[in-house]
Specification:
The complex is a heterodimer of chains A (about 140) and B (about 300). By secondary structure, chain A is α/β, with parallel strands linked by helices. Chain A is built from six helices and five strands; from the N terminus they run αβαββαβααβα. Classes of the chains: A alpha/beta (about 140), B mainly alpha (about 300).
Chain lengths: ~140, ~300
């Protein structure tokens, strides 16, 4: 593990993009920042602009409206940027698999590095996912 | 003062290196106190150092349609202005009796430079939200400069019309200015002004993260964003320290006095953080009305009291 990987895995700025979610996943993300879980302990912060982000966190099934926008957001993010598919819809379109409006799952639109399944994922599952992502960043997996 | 001594003061101590390290630690105090107020644990002390170091490993993007000279020049200008202002403040604190005539006025000007640079940098980034943030920043500057200049004339009046920070510090040796009515009023005014200068809530309308997505900073990434973060860190040292020097006697030269000076700095910083954490963001017109109304009246009262010798 080099210095670069060590630094990148200790300061993670998250840009949260909702590509048409039902809001449950979004609430669970905020739960991680509350006193009970407090992931700012590990240097994880939510940021307002995708230009500051290290992680693009996508919730919701990508529909026809949001798919080009998610693609654009990924192109706008400074690299190295990692993509997390969040929740059942983000991972596999979930309930909306056969909908006329959701033609492609997220990982067909942009490269996805981590899947956090669940409807919505519990904060424990999110923290588990983050630990896996840091391990991936450090090249331990 | 030779050229080399000036370079050493600007770049190493008490300038860029010292001030940015101290500023990143002050940023940690900010995050830790905020976390404790919200009943959280908060990040470790080295978090801000990692955050800035990380940005140097990230891609630096020039958005389409942006002006490269302004877009990349403005963070450097902000960092240079903030460092110069902080160096002059800290130089008078660490080397008592030093400084040039009129350095107090130079500080008031230089402390404005990061805000002006932020305005230009935001406008140069060709983003509508950044332009909106820049226009708010301009209104904020217009609103807080008037009470700030009135409040900073109080130490000048009380030290017998001296515009040298070292003389202002000498005049406070027996009794700091904050121990008088006009001093307290001017201190409160200046405290609210540095809240706005540092871009903290409630006066963060220019860079509202949840509303206009970090405003002028929206298009900055990588090294350019790191420059902004360092400029802000340096200002977090300079501005509260300026307040301590203006009204509260500055640093002492004995070890105990140094410690007391550090304590004063932390008290001012924590006051700013407490205001930040207990107030919602005000709209820009509310901020303007607040600064030109009650705050300016308070500043005028303190100037009149200072003229009367209270």
């Amino acid at each position: 593990m080099g210095l670069k990987e060590n630094i990148l895995s200790r300061s993670i700025y998250v840009f949260h993009a909702s590509s048409g979610s039902c809001n449950n996943c979004d609430i669970e993300i905020i739960d991680c920042l509350t006193p009970r879980y407090d992931i700012e302990r590990f240097g994880i912060q939510l940021v307002g602009s995708v230009r500051h982000a290290d992680i693009l966190l996508c919730t919701g099934s990508c529909n026809r409206q949001s798919a080009p926008r998610i693609k654009k957001l990924y192109e706008q993010a400074p690299k190295p940027c990692f993509v997390v598919a969040f929740g059942a819809c983000g991972c596999s379109r979930g309930l909306f698999k056969d909908s006329y409006n959701t033609t492609d799952p997220l990982d067909k639109i942009i490269p996805v590095d981590l899947y956090i399944p669940g409807c919505p994922p519990r904060p424990e599952a999110i923290i588990d996912g983050i630990v896996k992502l840091t391990k991936k960043l450090r090249g331990e997996v | 003062m030779s050229v080399w001594a000036a370079f050493f003061a600007f770049l190493i101590f008490p300038g860029f290196l010292f001030a940015s390290v101290a500023g990143l630690l002050a940023g940690w105090i900010d995050r830790k106190v905020t976390a404790r107020l919200q009943w959280r644990v908060g990040p470790p002390w080295y978090q801000n150092f990692i955050d800035v170091a990380k940005l140097f490993y990230k891609e630096t993007i020039l958005p389409k349609g942006a002006l490269p000279a302004f877009f990349f020049g403005m963070p450097l200008l902000a960092l240079a202005g903030a460092t110069l202002a902080t160096t002059i403040v800290l130089y008078s604190c660490f080397y008592p009796g030093n400084g040039f005539v009129g350095d107090f006025i130079a500080i008031v000007y230089l402390a404005l430079l990061p805000s002006v640079a932020l305005m230009f940098g935001g406008t140069a980034s060709a983003n509508p939200l950044a332009t909106l943030g820049a226009s708010r920043e301009m209104k904020l500057i217009l609103s807080y400069e008037l009470p700030f200049i009135l409040a900073s004339s109080v130490p000048i009046l009380k030290s017998g019309y001296s515009i040298r920070l070292a003389d202002i510090l000498v005049a406070q040796q027996g009794r700091p200015f904050i121990a008088s009515v006009s001093g307290v009023l001017a201190f409160l005014v200046a405290l609210l002004v540095i809240q706005a200068k540092l871009g903290f809530v409630p006066f963060d309308a220019a860079e509202a993260e949840t509303e206009i997505m970090a405003g002028p900073y929206i298009e900055y990434s990588g090294k350019a964003l790191a420059m902004w973060k360092l400029a802000k860190a340096v200002l977090t040292v300079g501005l509260p320290m300026l307040l301590v020097s203006m009204f509260w006697g500055g640093l002492g030269m004995t070890p105990l006095g140094m410690l007391a000076g550090l304590g004063k700095y932390v008290v001012v910083l924590v006051l700013v953080i407490l205001i930040k954490n207990t107030n919602p963001r005000v709209r820009i017109d509310q901020a303007l009305r607040f600064f030109w109304g009650p705050v300016t009246i308070m500043a005028v009262v303190s100037v009149v009291l200072a003229l009367l010798g209270k």
